[in-house]
């Protein structure tokens, strides 16, 4: 596939056909994804390939608490899980919110589910002494996750980086025997998408790139 085509059409697939995703294809996908960058090239990623129905059901259950909150915040027109602007959704509202189906179903229906982990003993977190929420640590794992989706796209498959279940990380660690120094970065359903989207909704360059300093003239 042409690189720019792949970048512009790798969408979040959440609906899948009944086609299998064989281990051989998965190995090919991961064999290409592993060329992702990571801080200091430490490559702290680990991937658990889940096909077992009971494990997927458990992962779906662990997605629900955050999916309820996500849905409640969307209904309030908030940016879910944002740490700068506090939510107006109280615990009771969240508890009674029916989570959006599309947030839960993919792990049950995809050909395979990848649990993407990162070994925190090798991750460089250069912002850990700042008073804001950490962002740098994720940069040692999400380029790898994104590479998996690009490689899957190239092989005619697709999936989504999902993180809602990660709010229940200790339970996922106990479910899958993951040690406590290894973070669960994403739960990624993968399979053959029911349809291939080609026009993704993204802001134009002039809306996010400026010259020289914050608020500078748009790069267009
Ligand atoms: C860090 C991150 C976390 C995400 N978490 C979830 C998630 O928990 N569940 C989900 O369905 N999609 C999740 N997504 C997918 C986003 O919703 C998706 O990338 C975005 O809506 C763009 O979708 P599109 O590529 O199909 O246009 C996540 C994406 C990223 C990058």
Description:
This protein has helices spanning 3-9, 23-33, 53-75, 91-96, 101-104, 106-109, 142-154, 169-176; strands spanning 45-50, 112-119, 158-159, 182-191. 35% of the residues lie in helices and 12% in strands. With 220 residues, the protein is α+β, with helices and mostly antiparallel strands. Bound molecules: flavin mononucleotide. The site of flavin mononucleotide has 11 residues, from loops.
Concise overview:
The protein has 220 residues and is an alpha+beta fold. The chain is built from eight helices and four strands. It is globular, with a radius of gyration of 18 Å.
Rounded to an integer, what's the Rg over CA atoms? 18 Å
- Lateral arrangement of strands in the main beta sheet: 1-2-4-3
Q: What structural class do you assign from the helix and strand content?
A: alpha+beta
What percent of residues adopt helix (DSSP H or I)? 25-40%
Number of E-type strands: 4
Summed over residues and divided by their number, the pLDDT gives a mean of: 97
Instruction: Report, as a whole number of angstroms, the end-to-end distance.
Output: 27 Å
> Which regions are unreliable across 5 or more consecutive residues at pLDDT < 50?
none
Order of helices and strands: HHEHHHHEHEHE
Give the overall shape: globular
User: What about the largest sheet?
Assistant: 4 strands, antiparallel
